[in-house]
Design a protein that fits this description.
CATH class: Alpha Beta
Order of helices and strands: EEEHEHEHEHHEEEHEHEHEHH
Strand order of the largest sheet: 1-4-5-6-7-10-11-12
Number of strands: 12
Largest sheet: 8 strands, parallel, barrel
CATH architecture: Alpha-Beta Barrel
Low-confidence stretches: none
Mean pLDDT: 90
Radius of gyration: 17 Å
Helix content: 25-40%
Structural class: alpha/beta
Number of domains: 1
Oligomer: single chain
Shape: globular
Number of helices: 10
Length: 256
């Protein structure tokens, strides 16, 4: 049986780690390189580094910070934010990223997923999806995809979009519930189950962790292969090892 991956996430703005609630009210949470080193020492299975305002501000991602982080950490590193073309993917991989996450650009140019996947291999192409509950009748699943750091609705139904991403060559999906993000009320089990049930590629669930048993609930009730969290790790509520011990105690296979 595949082991569940525990993945801390560094949301970075202007070179600093930040965390908010429902994608807003961002507060400083430390230096990204130092945070990454701490998670590496704690035994994180991977690290996700998202430059959350790069697309909104229409600027390049912070390559120097990526390079610094990659040099000081030995876990796989997924990097995203501001990726607009295949050349951006190449730059990130050359800067030390193991996988590259594409969000907004993929929505407006889905061929980017295919071009990047064909050139570098699907194993290093992640499509990040920010989803929110909606009454939009076009979105029959009840969840709409948002772009540009969760600020723009797209009229895309999350289930339709995730299938297209897989067809275009995405190797993994990073799914964030905007409704649960930063609330500490747990993963969005309903959304995660819906998405996991229709794809054949790995799914990382994100948004809403506040307690150790939230990880166990998501691992047992959904088919997510990775569980991502941010603020509970940044502010020391518990460690990666605490999470893995809790999961192992409840029969969930993890790397200790």
């Amino acid at each position: 049986m595949l082991k569940t991956r525990i993945i801390p996430c560094l949301d970075v703005k202007e070179g600093r780690v930040v965390k908010g609630i429902n994608f807003f009210d961002l507060k400083d949470a430390g230096d990204p390189v130092e945070q990454a080193k701490a998670y590496d020492a704690q035994g994180a299975d991977e690290l996700c580094f998202l430059d959350i305002t790069a697309s909104l501000e229409k600027r390049d991602i912070l390559y120097d910070i990526i390079n610094d982080t990659a040099k000081k950490c030995f876990m796989p590193l997924t990097v995203g934010g501001g990726v607009k073309e295949v050349d951006d993917v190449k730059k990130l991989l050359y800067s030390g990223a193991d996988k590259v996450s594409i969000n907004s650009a993929a929505i407006y140019n889905p061929k980017l997923i295919k071009d990047a996947s064909d050139r570098f291999g699907k194993q290093c192409i992640v499509v990040a999806i920010d989803a929110k509950k909606t009454n939009n009748k076009v979105c029959t699943s009840g969840f709409e995809v948002f772009s540009h750091g969760g600020t723009k609705g797209t009229n895309l139904d999350v289930l339709n979009w995730v299938k297209k991403c897989e067809e275009f060559g995405a190797g993994e999906i990073l799914l964030t519930s905007m409704d649960n993000d930063g609330t500490e009320k747990g993963f969005n089990i309903n959304l995660t189950k819906k998405v996991a049930s229709i794809i054949g590629i790995p799914l990382i669930a994100s948004g809403g962790v506040g307690k150790l048993d939230h990880f166990t609930e998501a691992a047992i009730k959904t088919q997510a292969s990775g569980l991502l969290a941010a603020s509970v790790f940044h502010y020391g509520k518990f460690t990666i090892n605490d999470v893995k011990k809790e999961l192992k105690k409840n029969g969930v296979p993890v790397r200790i």
